[in-house]
Amino acid sequence: MAFMNKLVPDFVKRIPCHMDFDGQRRAEKTFQAIILLFAAVGFVWGYICQQFSQTFYILAAGFLLSCLVTLPPWPIYRHKPLKWQPARHYDEAGEENQPQSSPAVGKSKKKRSS
Fold first, then answer.
1. Cα(41)–Cα(59) distance, rounded to whole angstroms?
2. Biggest alpha carbon distance in the chain?
3. pLDDT, tens only, 78-103
4. CB-based contact 42:55 (threshold 8 Å)
5. How far apart are alpha carbons 23 and 74 in whole angstroms?
6. Which residue has the higher pLDDT, 111 or 67?
7. DSSP secondary structure string, 9-59?
8. In angstroms, rounded to a whole number, what is the distance separating the alpha carbons of residues 31 and 71?
């Protein structure tokens, strides 16, 4: 699989491809609203024309539009990123290594005045 990674151009690798949980919820709601709207309009138009193919075409157009709007990870779906916990490091025996903590910068103890 590593050889496939070499074939992908650098500008494609730099494209952000993540979506946060709130963005996933927003994309799902948008997808459902577009499909429902186009289904209702398609049903009414197909009933007026008395042709099921018109209903299908309108619904297919709604599906394509909703895919274009919700499948790519647009920036509107990345407003609330998650804060991940730091990675755990294990030694050869499988025991967890605690990273050495550095002293906090900017935190100084207040001197008590007597």
1. 8
2. 93
3. 888 888 888 888 877 777 776 555 55
4. yes
5. 9
6. 67
7. -HHHHTS-----HHHHHHHHHHHHHHHHHHHHHHHHHHHHHT-HHHHHHHH
8. 9
